[in-house]
Specification:
The chain is an alpha+beta fold and 302 residues long. Helices cover 74% and strands 8% of the residues. The chain folds into two domains: 177 residues, no CATH class; 85 residues, Alpha-Beta Plaits, CATH 3.30.70. It is built from ten helices and four strands; from the N terminus they run αααβαβαβαβαααα.
Length: 302
């Protein structure tokens, strides 16, 4: 029976001509309702907005730092090489061909022992002795996180005498990147929980203050979305305003990171500031509107 009624309603709506002026009046009315609800909330608005701004600032700072660390890790991967020292009887060209076939190896460069010895003699005053240095391969890896895998594969080669690379530096960069990413995820979870809790309590107060008005609208047959919309817009307003406020401290974070990139001559991630800004706005509005929507479902049976 309910399905049949719903079907008839849809069919009737299709044949009713749309009055755009009326639609605009409704939109204006809903906007005014949202504005009045925000006014009713009073000083609590400030608490919600500043709380959201603080959490969004932490999220933005972590997210932007994660992008910087990833950029540093990528640059480190571009310069980080494994030095492979070959045995005296090994053929460097054959070993190079074999190593080039390994997964995650980007390039292999042969440094002949004669070249290494000549460079060393230029830097240091050495006695006239035979060249004790081995032929060396400089193996470049595609990403820092794959360096251990390539290192272990190289260890299996019989032609290899010894190897070295900045292992501790690579591991520290990876660990730092992992820590920052974990903190960012935790901040997102905390942001969601706090936003929903705070907005839940606020919207509940507004619902209580408008209880009689909502009941009259129900009796008049007003659409559920007409009743819900101002509350959802109120939550979205908190998220948007919190995001705008969060930009003030984030501006200083961005400047600090930019100076760091310039000092170490590492390129800034493309569109980093824009990506952070859009993500912050999207999250603030989504959590704000989403928190309101969940609260309406809980406290308002429409």
């Amino acid at each position: 029976m309910n399905k049949q009624k719903s079907k008839i309603k849809k069919e009737v709506k299709k044949h009713i001509p749309k009055d755009w002026l009326c639609e605009l009046r409704i939109l204006y009315r809903l906007s005014m309702e949202t504005f009045n609800d925000i006014k009713r909330t009073g000083i609590v608005n400030l608490v919600i907005i500043t709380t959201m701004a603080a959490i969004l600032t932490i999220f933005g700072a972590c997210f932007r730092s994660a992008m910087t660390i990833s950029s540093f890790a990528h640059e480190l991967g571009n310069v980080l090489e494994i030095s492979v020292y070959l045995k005296a009887d090994a053929d460097p060209n054959m070993v190079k061909t074999r190593v080039s076939e390994f997964k995650h190896v980007e390039s292999v460069k042969i440094i002949p022992k004669s070249e290494s010895w000549a460079d060393l003699k230029r830097e240091m005053k050495l006695p006239d002795i035979s060249n004790p240095l081995p032929d060396t391969l400089h193996v470049k890896v595609d990403k820092p996180e794959n360096i251990d895998s390539v290192f272990n594969n190289l260890k299996q080669l019989k032609s290899v005498e010894d190897m070295s690379y900045a292992q501790q530096l690579a591991k520290k960069i990876q660990m730092l990147n992992h820590v920052v990413n974990t903190i960012t995820v935790l901040v997102v979870i905390i942001l969601g929980m706090l936003t929903i809790t705070i907005i839940n309590n606020t919207i509940q107060l507004v619902i209580q203050s408008r209880k009689d008005e909502i009941e009259i609208m129900r009796l008049m047959g007003v659409s559920n979305w007409y009743i819900r919309f101002p509350f959802i817009m109120q939550g979205a307003f908190y998220g948007f305003t919190g995001s705008v406020l969060a930009f003030i401290p984030l501006h200083f974070v961005e400047n600090g990171l930019m100076h760091m990139h310039q000092f170490f001559m590492v390129p800034t991630p493309l569109y980093a500031q824009t990506i952070v800004a859009l993500t912050m706005f999207a999250m603030g509005i989504l959590f704000g509107a989403g928190g309101s929507f969940l609260c309406i479902k809980k406290h308002l049976q429409v």
